[in-house]
Amino acid sequence: MNKHLEDFFEFLRFPSVSTASEHAGDVRACGEWLENKLNTIGLEAELHETLGHPVLVAKNQHKEGKLNLLIYGHYDVQPVDPVELWDTPPFEPVLKDGRIWGRGSTDNKGQLMAHVLGIQEYIEKNGELPVNLTFLFEGEEEIGSKHLVPFLETHKDMLPCDIIAVSDTGMVSRGTPTLGYGLRGICCCEVKVTGPSGDLHSGVFGGAVANPATAVAQMIASLHKLDGTIAVEGFYDDVAPLEQWEREMWASIPGAADQDVLDTTGSPEVFGEPGYSSSERLWARPTAEVNGMAGGYQGEGSKTVLPAEAMAKFSFRLVPDQKPEDILEKVKAHFEKHTPVGVKVEIEIGHSGKPYYSDPNSEYGKAAQRALEKAFGAEPVMIREGGSIPIIQDMKEILGADSLMLGLALPDCQIHAPNENFYLENFEGGIKMSQLLLDELAALK
Q1: Residue 206 is part of which domain span?
Q2: Chain centre distance of CA 219
């Protein structure tokens, strides 16, 4: 484990922030380090160029008659801002209180390395793998995997897979192994509201012309009914009801109750669509959220201004059968219908991704459950994930395989936030789980 941690810490020291152009060289260096690591453990690894950051593919020697397993992950990370809120430097990892602290420690370098080191251990102990393995690691997940879809389409023949394993999701609570079988999709937009040609004195002109900041507030308020239900016409048309077994299982999952949500978030009270528990709202119901809003004077003290423009950013999480393009059309029609008089509105469409759903009790799902139970010593629970990984559905459509989401992150791992961390016990458990998964899947052939 000491050698494993040395490798992991070296991997974490690369500031592979994909969204920042000044870190492009660091992203590439991180990919090259990973390429060398995979070649060193006995795989054939190669970085492939894209119009953005490179994609890394690594394989063992594939043999006819063996199951084809593809393991996906990403080596890019989120920015570290606000850096002053970190207790330790984000790219100088430390082991403290049973956790590894540093940017990317959970998302996704720690989970990715658990698979890499598991494969390394398996090869060292057994000489060869019981499956045809392909690692597919990208450097653009944190910016929407823009160039991975064309790569998949172009290189489909070099990525054979019966099943895909992904550890870029979470466990519901400490010591509770978790198999994810669904992901919410996403679509985003930005609304810009303009009024007068420039900022105005609020005393001289207020009351005679419309205020764009007020208009934005009215449009935001129009999205929901007071009880939390989304008020966009037709928004729920394609939403399928939850299965009864899902509702029963989720009701008993540790770490998913209302109080757990409050403890994790620090919120004073749970809130959301009536008729559903917090776990159901998080994992299987669609949402409409305001991600940011701006307009007018933001500085200290008063400035009696009527702003010339205001804006708001929105994201919508989608569930199976909802289509991003359909939802965005409905949202656009809703905002046009609820545009106050006296202002002009521009709606800019942002990124989107489809929801994903698979059968957790397929033969592959059962194999994954057995591997999780043996690795962590507890019966696994099965959930849909509230977050979005659009490439999962893309891989299903292009490569023709479902994904097993074997999350190792915990709710307090602070992904995307200061003081990101990864529990050492989950790092060790992930290394063990990845080896058990090989045997469980190989037995299906």
Answers
A1: 185-239+286-353
A2: 28
Both 194 and 317 in one domain: the answer is yes
Q: Give the count of domains, the chain.
A: 2
The pair of structure tokens assigned to 379 is 């019966």
Residues 210, 347: Cα–Cα separation, whole Å = 19
Residue 392 neighbours by CB under 8 Å, 6+ apart: 164, 166, 183, 356, 403, 405
Radius of gyration of the chain (CA): 24
- Token pair, residue 145, equals 């995997």
The tokens for 191 are 């609304």
**How many other CB atoms are found less than 10 A from the CB of residue 418?**
16
Q: What is the pLDDT of residues 166-218, one digit of tens each?
A: 999 999 999 999 999 999 999 999 999 999 999 999 999 999 999 999 999 99
What is residue 134's three-state secondary structure?
strand
Q: H or E segment at 436?
A: helix 424-442
335, 353, 371: which is the final residue of a domain? 353
Domain boundary among 327, 353, 379: 353
Whether omega for the bond prior to residue 108 falls within 30 degrees of 0, making it cis, is yes
Query: How far apart, in whole angstroms, are the C-alpha atoms of residue 331 and residue 86?
Result: 38
Read out DSSP for 19-88? T-GGGHHHHHHHHHHHHHHHHHTT-EEEEE--SSS-EEEEE----TTS-EEEEEEE--B----SGGG-SS
Spatial distance between the Cα atoms of 198 and 294, rounded to a whole number of angstroms: 16
Residue 201 CA, chain-centre distance (Å), reads 44
Using DSSP bridges, classify how beta strands 163-166 and 403-405 pair: parallel, antiparallel or unpaired: parallel
Percent of the chain with pLDDT over 70: 100
Name the one residue in this structure whose structure tokens are 């099965």. Answer: 382
**Total H helices, total E strands in the chain:** 12, 18
Can you list the alpha helix ranges (DSSP code H) found in 238-362?
244-251, 258-265, 278-284, 324-337
Rounded CA separation 345/215 (Å)? 10
How high is the pLDDT of residue 168?
Answer: 95
DSSP 300: S
Residue pair 59/44 in contact by the 8 Å Cβ criterion: yes
- What pLDDT, in 10s, does the model give residues 85-109? 999 999 999 999 999 999 999 999 9
Angle at 317 between CA 82 and CA 16, to 5 degrees: 35
| H/E segment holding residue 281 | helix 278-284
Q: Are 405 and 179 in contact (CB under 8 A)?
A: yes
